[in-house]
Design a protein that fits this description.
This protein is of the alpha/beta class. It contains 13 helices and 21 strands. Helix 4 crosses helix 7.
């Protein structure tokens, strides 16, 4: 079973303020909104809400120090995976440490290593919030590109009242959505991804197929989802998978895949043809099982070249990505030939000698562009290739649409 996170990855940092308990509701609302949330509390914040609570709510192990799980380099892994970091509540001390570039616990180290947007939600006593030092630290973070959500005004701990109250959860969620939308390279774009192999029946028992697992196409679909795209996956024969947020169309044969693709391409901005379509099918598929004594010859006919046929109706404002599996020498040259003959904008050619790549988590090959650029991948995670393809889609669609 291939499983993917529910949606975009959010790191929820929790500072040591009494409002930490309100972050429990924020975590739930983020999950309801489709986000996958990893909680990183500061060690002191565990005095307000314990580790067990965060683990129960998030369904994930919770760490506070860099020294926990050092074999996985937690801060780097979390920073790389995060689409957004939300720190709520952010105390005066935590804001000060962030402004100083400190990296003395897992949360501050993760922020320092991350390239994703960071939303700071200050919550503290009015005197602390309005103190010139805190205001200067917030201005420093704003200058570095951090997002700051001004706190509410109202009742605080005890009899105190004023600015510094933890904002209502819906207000924070609204800001999260705003940030995610503004940082979504494929927001408003429809991407169609074909994946898996086709199954061409010989009789009710036997078929012509291939070893495709669908992993690469699914990795691309997931990375497109992370960039805010509307994603349709036309899924041939694959490993079982769960990928929330997509429109899934299951097919078996090449003809079924072509029919489904024709219906979806009209409204698509981009096509990624990652499916491994069988080149041929039996001329006649028997409705009854053929006895092995009678199984002496098999007459085949060519399947349609779905990608080549699709490019005939390709619009100027569409971007097409093709895949080619090759063996032997001259992989790059074979890929360049197919790049131009199939009329696609990008083509990934991979070496499948000795059964490599199919069903594996890694891929080796070359991504070629009609503009002359190329990127080589050697035993790279298929998500790495997926991110590169999605990045090029963002750029190409941006150029096309001005």
């Amino acid at each position: 079973m291939i499983t993917f996170p529910r949606g975009r990855q959010v790191v929820l940092g929790v500072g040591a303020g009494i409002a930490a308990y309100k972050a429990c509701d924020l975590l739930r609302r983020l999950q309801d909104d489709g986000f996958e949330v990893t909680v990183i509390p500061t060690n002191s914040s565990l005095n307000f809400v314990g580790r067990a609570t965060w683990e129960a709510l998030s369904g994930k192990e919770v760490k506070t120090e860099v020294w926990e799980g050092t074999q996985s380099v937690s801060h780097v892994a979390l920073a790389d995976a995060a689409d957004l970091i939300v720190i709520a509540p952010a105390t005066a001390d935590l804001i000060s440490r962030l402004a100083s570039g400190r990296a003395d616990d897992l949360l501050t180290t993760t922020v320092l290593a991350a390239s994703s947007p960071v939303l700071i939600v200050p919550s503290m006593h009015p005197g602390m919030y309005l103190n010139p030092a805190t205001q200067a630290n917030l201005e420093t973070l704003i200058a570095r590109g951090f997002y700051i959500l001004q706190p509410d005004t109202g009742r605080l701990t005890g009899t105190d009242s004023g600015i510094g109250r933890f904002p209502e959860t819906l207000r924070i969620i609204g800001k999260v959505r705003e940030i995610c939308d503004s940082n979504s390279g494929l927001k408003g774009k429809k991407i169609v991804v074909t994946t898996g192999g086709t199954m061409e029946p010989i009789d009710p028992v036997r078929f012509i197929g291939n070893k495709s697992s669908g992993r690469q196409g699914l990795a691309i679909a997931y990375e497109a989802l992370r960039e805010g795209a509307e994603v349709t996956v036309i899924s041939g024969i694959t490993e079982e998978y769960v990928l929330g947020g997509i429109k899934r169309i299951d097919v078996k044969t090449a003809q079924e895949m072509q029919n489904a693709l024709s219906a979806e391409l009209e409204s698509a901005d981009a096509l990624v043809m990652a499916a491994a379509v069988a080149d041929a099918r039996p001329e006649i598929a028997s409705s009854e099982k053929v006895n092995k004594e009678d199984f002496r010859a098999l007459s085949l006919v060519k399947n349609p070249d779905i990608l080549a046929e699709s490019t005939k109706n390709k619009r100027e404002n569409q971007v097409f990505v093709g895949f080619a599996a090759e063996t032997g020498d001259g992989i790059r040259e074979k890929g360049l030939k197919k790049l131009h003959s199939k009329g696609v904008d990008f083509l990934y050619v991979t070496d499948v000698s000795n059964g490599k790549v199919f069903g594996e988590k890694e891929t080796t090959g070359i991504l070629l562009s009609k503009r002359g650029s190329e990127w080589s991948f050697k035993a790279a995670d298929k998500h790495e290739l997926g991110r590169r393809i999605v990045s090029e889609l963002i750029q190409e669609l941006g150029v096309i649409n001005g």
